[in-house]
Amino acid sequence: MKTNLFRTLRRLGFLFLAATAPVAMGGTNWIAPAHAEEAALKGGTLRVALLSDMTNYDPQQFSTVNFHLVKNLYDSLIEYTAEGEAVPSLATAWQIAPDNTSVTVTLRDDVTFHSGAKLTSADVAATLAKAADPKRGKNVYATMSIVKDWTTPDANTVTINFKAPVPLRQITDLLQFTIPIEAAGIDTVETVPAGTGAYMLDSRAVGQGLTLKANPNYWRKGQPIAEKVDFTIFSEDASASAALESDAVDLIYGGTSRSAVRLKDAGYQMVRGPGPLVMVFRINSTRAPFTNAKFRQAFNYLMDREGMLRVGYAGLGEVVALPWAPASPAFNAAYTEEFAYNIDKAKELIAASGLTPAEMSNWKMLVWGNDEPSVVLSQILQSALAEVGINIELDVRQGAEYTEAQLAGDYDTTFGAVGNVQKFPSRVATNSIYRGVKNPVLKDPHPHADYVAAIAQVNTTSGPDEAVKASYDNLNRVLVNDAFAIPTNSYDTGLIVASPKLGGLSLDIDNLFVARTVGFQ
């Protein structure tokens, strides 16, 4: 499907004005502490608008389309405050060995799964075994690369042993990413939730929405506040906004930045969390013409990142040329300047590739039609490509049709967000395009050995700060040289825009939606 960038930009022209409006930072509350106003909040049915359907109930999938469910159906071993401090959740304590080669976790003894079964170390062990399996571990598998094995000395204790000394933040990242699944429900978790969370599945209508009901035996006293949470899927952001403005829903989760800015100015609450995503142009480097490194490297300079952030996200976020949020220890602002939009440099690399015009244009860009920013970014890049003589079509797909192609790696290129960009750098490998093994796009063996080695170096480098920094610098240089994924900007995933009648709104460190603290004023 051919599209016209400038026609679209004219249609969205108001966005340039919206991007200049002052934007106040919303709440970035950590999910665990009780809110001061909780005592005054009332229960009821919380009505939430979404823009896309879920894929499954497996928390190890950890796809953005599941972010409204993960921390409502499940709990993690530990959590982070908005400032990145590790605090207890299902684990009451964790003891890291002096040589950083193991961590011993103590579990709460008053937690039950939705089935009524008690949480024990056997469930955590089964969860770790699933995560460590390349076929079942999904987006958690890469995080388990540091783990050697584990033991369960008793029902409330798990000791995780590492292959080598592991940095402190990488250990707590692992614990925060470990979301216990009931052992008896692991084989069916994609279709039947098996968690300890504040809410339980009540009903689901595929493509329309689902309803959660309060867990009557939830271990956090006084939570959840709302008795039910109704999620409704809207095909367009504008429709979700209209539903909020007409009081048909109470809250929008995961709407666009542009709508959030407009609705905030109209008096609605806007909550921004501490865990942004980074938008990445994903390249299938196993397919021609992208097997050519010079051709891929040209895309580092073909991204009008400033324009993409302004038009696609109303200016909410940061321009980046690496897959890190500014809070990441691997973030390096110099790369943003080095790889700024530069058509001349792109042309030099294209010429050096030796590809013919026909070869360079023989591919399509897969586009998530439900996500307006993805559409806009794709159109901006399509225009830049035309400027250097590369004319390609946009393959726009909606809903599950796009999700299935993206998760299976069945595309030439596509824009897609990545998470964990504010945590330990090797956590980026939890995202499908950055996986070092079992990569659904690049397959095995991984075609970029330097990248796999760079991730391994980050995972095994500890000691002097200079050595750690050198491992980050090496990874960054490999990323731009291999150029199988080209970051453009960070942005606020999981934005909450809510009615003024709601209180207790918050997002967790990954910007996952947390409903248990939300109630009515």
From TrEMBL:
CDD domains (UniProt xref): PBP2_NikA_DppA_OppA_like
Secretion signal span: 1-26
Keyword match Signal: yes
InterPro entries (alphabetical): Peptide/Ni-bd, SBP_5, SBP_5_dom
Keyword list, A-Z: Signal
Subcellular location: Periplasm
Domain named Solute-binding protein family: residues: 86-420
Matching Gene3D superfamilies: Dipeptide-binding Protein, Domain 3 (3.10.105.10), Periplasmic binding protein-like II (3.40.190.10)
UniProt similarity note: Belongs to the bacterial solute-binding protein 5 family.
Name this polypeptide is given: ABC transporter substrate-binding protein
Lineage, top ranks: Bacteria, Pseudomonadati, Pseudomonadota, Alphaproteobacteria, Hyphomicrobiales
